[in-house]
Design goal:
heterodimer, A: alpha/beta, TIM Barrel, 43% helix, 13% strand, globular, B: alpha/beta, Rossmann fold, 8-stranded mixed sheet, 9 helices, 8 strands, 35% helix
């Protein structure tokens, strides 16, 4: 199993009456709610937590991209990953990911991801999301009905840029370049492992299987609700005649670990509530721009998780209901172990994106939960897929002897 | 409504509603398409022989993949017009359709000599920002589109039951196809450089606006009139963006000098 410690980087200071005063946490949330001086502490605390996770043995540390979003303060995940690259040495840098249709030209992603892979000595996991409607269409103005075509073209350009050893011309509809010439190029060969976040689009299943990319379901409603979607994915894997390695799939799960089940409720309840009530308060008109989703996907019933009323309902549910429905896996190490095992086997996933910082959770509690999970849960789940223990196709291949950052004083040549 | 399908030179299968015995009128619909038993179409057919092609993505018209930008929409619309055997018909467009009609008349000024623009999109003035149609929920639309909101609610929600999951799915598919097409020329800002091309229009032009239009402010009316060489402006009182459906007789009266 591969465990990635993931921080969405929410703004933890949204007011108690946020839902009443504002229609959405995303797209048109006024930035008067953001305080840059508090933000300084928030960013640095979150980065410290990601670095702390490496010391506890998490396989990866994860960042992602959102725009105009009160629960995701990383418009540029690559800046965060660059910062992490210098202060970590072992964990994979899971950038999940760059919305490649948004970069102009998209060769920028090939370059920046190559930079991260080189600086980190081959520790990059490269994520290529299509991006949500909120980010891609509303905040960044991409035409919904053309977003997928633009994404596909950007993907083609990036992969060719990484593969080529001579400059070449690229004549796309959205990008025309006479000289595609990616300097630097990535350490990992032929390229870093590629993770694709999906939300049930049938096209995305096939896209992952066409290229042997990892399919990642980044749900906020837990593993019980994800069963049907992941089952659809695995059926497609079988239909395509691909092997059923669990490392072809990943799942994001909100997790809270405490000494006892009771302590979990006492410690984390308010932060879970903050996340579901305030962070996931998205105006339905932003959830799914018309034309963003294909007709085939709508017919399959896969609507945006943001277009459902479920988050609002979760926010009003009792702790018991949230936990019983497994929106959040919470409890003692024994409880969490048992439920994680059910998740991993039930969804057949080799990658877990562990959402251990939740909403406005303070640093001390975050570290408490993170440490308990690393020490008392992870070791029991490590070898859950013994038949696939040697499958290293879907994870990083770092350099054997990377250099370490030198102390600043020494660099001055004393 | 009487209709048939034609196949264009590029292979798109296009639904064309056609009715009436008068002089030919080529009608380009707005982002919402036509309504069931569309009352403006019926009113036009009293005075004209109306040809109302549905753009790809509307009703059962296909060929969406062939449309990327405004030039594609313009050439597609000419392909349909010529495919119907029409030579210099009166060209009328509403909202998005008005934007396309104005582009057609600017691109081929010798092929369009009479033009009716009803609350056309296509210009942008920071002093009068056009609301974001693409974030509106169904229940928000009547207030945006109609002066008479009771009429709007009746026309726009007839037969809608968004609580029924199957109906909702069909609605989302229909809405996704229609506005998916519209988004290619209207998203995120409904402007594609038309202002730079309006000077080319030679057609005798009537610009028509509902005085209470909440979607595209009536201030855009004089802007179109002044930029087109031979244009007049008719503002119709007590009507919103769907002036076509609130005041059909007045709209047809305003078009009559072009007949």
């Amino acid at each position: 199993m591969k465990f990635t410690w993931f921080n969405l980087m929410p703004w933890p200071h949204m007011p108690d009456d946020f839902r009443e005063k504002h229609r959405s946490v995303w797209v048109d949330i006024p930035n008067s709610l953001y305080d840059p001086e508090k933000g300084h502490e928030v960013y640095n605390t979150y980065l410290d937590q990601l670095e702390y996770a490496e010391t506890l043995g998490y396989d990866g540390i994860g960042v992602n991209e959102h725009h105009a979003n009160g629960y995701g303060l990383m418009p540029s995940p690559n800046l965060m990953a660059a910062s992490l690259a210098r202060r970590t040495s072992r964990a994979a840098l899971v950038v999940l990911g760059n919305s490649i249709a948004l970069y102009n030209p998209p060769v920028r992603v090939a370059e920046e991801f190559a930079m991260l892979d080189v600086i980190s000595g081959g520790r990059l996991v490269a994520g290529f999301p299509v991006g949500t409607s909120m980010d891609t269409n509303y905040a960044y103005g991409q035409i919904p009905a053309l977003t997928r075509e633009k994404y596909a073209e950007a993907h083609d350009l990036i992969m060719r840029a990484w593969a080529a050893r001579e400059p070449f011309p690229f004549n796309g509809r959205y990008t025309k370049l006479r000289y595609v010439n990616c300097w630097p190029r990535p350490v990992q060969k032929p390229y870093p492992p590629i993770f694709i976040p999906g939300g049930g689009s049938l096209e995305t299943y096939d896209f992952c299987l066409d290229h042997d990319y990892v399919y990642c379901y980044l749900s906020f409603t837990g593993y019980k609700r994800a069963q049907a979607l992941m089952q659809g994915y695995w059926e497609r894997v079988a239909e395509r005649g691909k092997d059923l390695s669990p490392y072809r799939a990943g799942f994001a799960q909100t997790i809270c670990v405490a000494e006892t089940d009771k302590e979990a409720e006492e410690l984390y309840r308010e932060h879970v509530s903050y996340f579901y009530n305030r962070c996931l308060h998205v105006y339905p008109g932003f959830a799914d721009a018309p034309g963003y989703r294909t007709v085939k996907t709508i017919k399959s019933g896969a609507l945006s998780q943001y277009s459902r009323a479920s988050f609002a309902q979760i926010g009003q549910l009792s702790w018991k209901e949230i936990v019983d429905n497994r929106y959040v896996i919470a409890g003692s190490p024994a409880t969490v172990r048992e439920q994680m095992e059910e998740l991993i086997k039930g969804l057949r996933v080799g990658n877990i994106f562990c959402l251990l910082h939740i909403g406005n959770m303070p640093d001390e509690k975050t570290r408490h939960s993170t440490k308990l999970f690393a020490e008392q849960v992870m070791p029991h789940l490590r070898n859950i897929w013994p038949d696939h223990a040697d499958d290293d196709r879907f994870w990083t291949h770092p350099m054997a002897t990377p250099v370490a950052p030198q102390p600043i004083a020494a660099a001055g040549g004393a | 409504m009487k209709s048939h399908q034609i196949t264009t030179a590029t292979g798109a299968n296009i639904r064309v509603h056609e009715d009436g015995d008068g002089p030919p009128l080529f009608y380009l619909h707005g982002a919402g398409g036509l309504m069931p038993d569309d009352l403006f179409f019926a009113a036009l057919a009293q005075s004209f022989h109306v040809y109302a092609p549905m753009l790809p993505g509307y009703e059962d018209s296909d060929g969406e993949d062939g449309l990327h930008d405004m030039l594609d929409f313009v050439l597609h619309s000419f392909d349909v017009m010529y495919g119907l055997g029409l030579t210099r018909p009166l060209v009328v467009g509403h909202s998005m359709g008005g934007m396309i009609a104005a582009e057609m008349a600017a691109v081929a000024p010798n092929d369009i000599d009479r033009l009716g623009l009803i609350a056309p999109a296509g210009l942008w003035d920071d002093a009068h920002p056009i609301p974001d149609l693409f974030t509106k929920l169904p229940f928000e639309l009547p207030a945006l589109l109609f002066h008479d909101q009771d009429l709007g609610a009746r026309l726009m929600t007839a037969g809608l039951d968004l609580d029924d999951p199957e109906f909702l799915k069909e609605f989302l598919i229909m809405n996704g196809r229609r506005l998916g097409t519209a988004s290619k020329i209207l998203f995120p800002i409904p402007e594609r450089g038309l202002a730079e091309r309006l000077y080319r229009i030679k057609a005798r032009t009537v610009v028509i606006w509902g005085a209470e239009d909440q979607l595209i402010d009536p201030a855009y009316g004089p802007a179109f009139r002044d930029a087109i060489a031979d244009a007049t402006l008719d503002e119709i009182a007590a009507a919103g963006h769907l002036v076509t459906h609130e005041k059909p007789a007045e709209v047809i009266g305003a078009l009559s000098p072009l007949n």
